[in-house]
Amino acid sequence: MNPYLSIIIPAYNEENKIKDTLENIKDIKEISEIIVVDDGSSDNTSKVAKEVKSDKITVITQDKNRGKGYALNNGLKVAMTKADIIGFLDGDLGSSSKEVAKLITPILNDEADVIIAKFPPAKKKGGLGFVKGLAKESVLEMTGVELDATLSGQRLFKKEVLEKFDEIPFGYGVEVGMTIDILKYGYRIKEVLVNMTHSETGRDLKGFIHRGKQYYHIKKVLRQKKKEWR
């Protein structure tokens, strides 16, 4: 019997991308259900998602924007009841969401307990690499494991890994914090190169503010993890 695989997609104001994101994964035979959590969007994200024809898709609409961590936890309440494998995908992947198939095969083959999507280099010039460098160095310092895609939110987990967490942490440091914990618990992580694309932040004020928040949250998470694992 094939494992039950749930995909959770937190989405905020993604009416332009969510249809393509869903259309390109709904027919992947290994995927059993897709849970879209509309994180209080002010556009038609929920409406567009509900119009995609598939018995696999469930749309949860939150009354207000509470952030990605809250949306993931909301989706997990549903997914954890049935799933053997749970995946997180962003709502803005568009047609490149089909690349999730590259993550499914290695986890089904027991090559690792967690599979992380490694994106190709960004097309748009973003920051100066401070955030990515901090994330990579933090995980290496804490675990001795060198990973390139520590900030990637596209991940597949065996259920037993997620059962170690009472809830998904909130804030921009969530991926780094979880990666450290997963490795410290002794689980195996594998990165897989995918040809995924999503919205990129540029070298404008909005982009620098976003990266500043990421940097602050990662530093905060690192301090917390050093206390927890000393």
CATH class: Alpha Beta
Q: For the CA atoms, what is the radius of gyration?
A: 17 Å
Largest sheet: 7 strands, mixed
What is the count of helical runs? Answer: 8
Report the helical percentage: 25-40%
Enzyme class: transferase
Domain Glycosyltransferase 2-like: 6-129
GO molecular function: undecaprenyl-phosphate 4-deoxy-4-formamido-L-arabinose transferase activity
Keywords: Glycosyltransferase, Transferase
List keywords for this structure.
single chain, 230 residues, alpha/beta, Spore Coat Polysaccharide Biosynthesis Protein SpsA, Chain A, 37% helix, transferase, glycosyltransferase, Glycosyltransferase_2, undecaprenyl-phosphate 4-deoxy-4-formamido-L-arabinose transferase activity, Nucleotide-diphossugar_trans
Q: Mind explaining what this structure looks like?
A:
This protein is of the alpha/beta class. The protein is 37% helix and 16% strand. β1 (5-11), α1 (18-23) and β2 (33-38) form a beta-alpha-beta unit. α5 (130-143) runs parallel beside α8. The radius of gyration is 17 Å and the shape is globular.
Give a topology summary.
Layout: E1 5-11, H1 18-23, E2 33-38, H2 45-51, E3 57-61, H3 68-79, E4 85-88, H4 101-108, E5 114-118, H5 130-143, E6 155-158, H6 159-162, H7 174-184, E7 189-193, H8 205-228
Parallel strand pairs: 1-2, 1-4, 2-3, 5-7
Antiparallel strand pairs: 4-6, 5-6
Summarize the structure.
By secondary structure, the protein is an alpha/beta fold. The chain has eight helices and seven strands. The longest helix has 24 residues, at 205-228.
